[in-house]
Amino acid sequence: MPADASPSAARHRPAAPRIRQLVLKVHSRCNLACDYCYVYRHADQGWRNRPRVIAPDTVRRVADRLAAHVARHRTDRVRVVLHGGEPLLAGVVVLDRTVRTLRDAMPTGTTLDIAMQTNGLLLDEAALDLCHTHGIDVGVSLDGDRRSNDRGRRHADGRGSFAEVARALRLLARPEHRSRYAGLLCTIDLANDPIAVYEGLREFDPPRLDLLLPHGNWSTPPPGRHPGDPATPYADWLIAVFDRWYSETPRRTGIRLFESLIALLLGGRSGTQALGAAEPDVMTIETDGTIEGTDTLKTTTASAMRTGFDVFRHSLDDALRHPSLAGRPEGVAALAPACRACPVVGTCGGGLYAHRFRDDAGFAHPSVYCADLFRLIRHVQTVVTADLDAVRRRVSDLSAPAGR
Ligand code: SF4
Fold it and tell me: Which of 42, 45, 95, 165 has the fewest Cβ atoms within 10 angstroms?
């Protein structure tokens, strides 16, 4: 047992933040050049100076640091997401060695879940063999049907990526590989028809999907979102999908954003950092071993997520003391005054942290998507409340004495 992990020490120690998800950059480049990419097209261009592929020494240090962290916090489950750039550019040999190193270091009693977020271009039988060997769950980025996807997800020479991703998804959805299919990630483009996008995603039979608001903030607003404008184009888009999805019986896929919203409305927990005032529990490690906060802060300023820590000199607990991680406000009490007074704050939580940023005042703002979030939450609340009322009426009819 580590020196500070005795039961009496734990009783007197304030609850320390801990990491539930580590995003590990195994390759710093990408084989696509998507219009909205937060890694290559936003404020932080640090990737230019980093090694392309993570080195074995760096992986060993990451594994040791993570093992020490989970032992100290007696964490029974932690997740590592193999990320990039495009993680499959690292090649199956590097990925195999990386996962073995991470697993070998884990202390007894801690389950290590491994996932990979890929653009799918290099997802072939060899990559899937690796995923089966190590139990790696595969999430693929796709923005809908061919037309919607190829509007933004393109090669550097302008060619769309849909055909290649569709090939990979047909492979992943086969019965022999489906156990490794985690789902699809789709970034919203207002130029795309919401129902065409939803149906395009469903074509690939994902167990789950998520719809992401494009990154932006008060100083660099997202496309079509004008700060201060009461229009709600993103809520309108999302509501069209929500209504279609919610009315399906049976529902063929889960949508993380909507499921989180409903869970929060019913008093549960959010499954996404886009909603709910949850504590930040995600850490990113770059290919050079640099420790950073959540990747989405790359969209704010070049320095917003730089901690100055790395796995060679610092423990993950050291890094958690940095303002972009543990020092980051958590809970409703730490939100902007407008959020604290907002009737939907319990569900919204101020939105994604990166979306609150403004050059002159940091993160002490509502989300740049405030108007959209408010309208979406109210809509879902109305629909779910009507459903619950109908259930209550049915239950009350059933329990009424016969003959009444
Ligand atoms: S809807 Fe706007 S004001 Fe309300 S909690 Fe969300 S971001 Fe804050």
Answer: 45
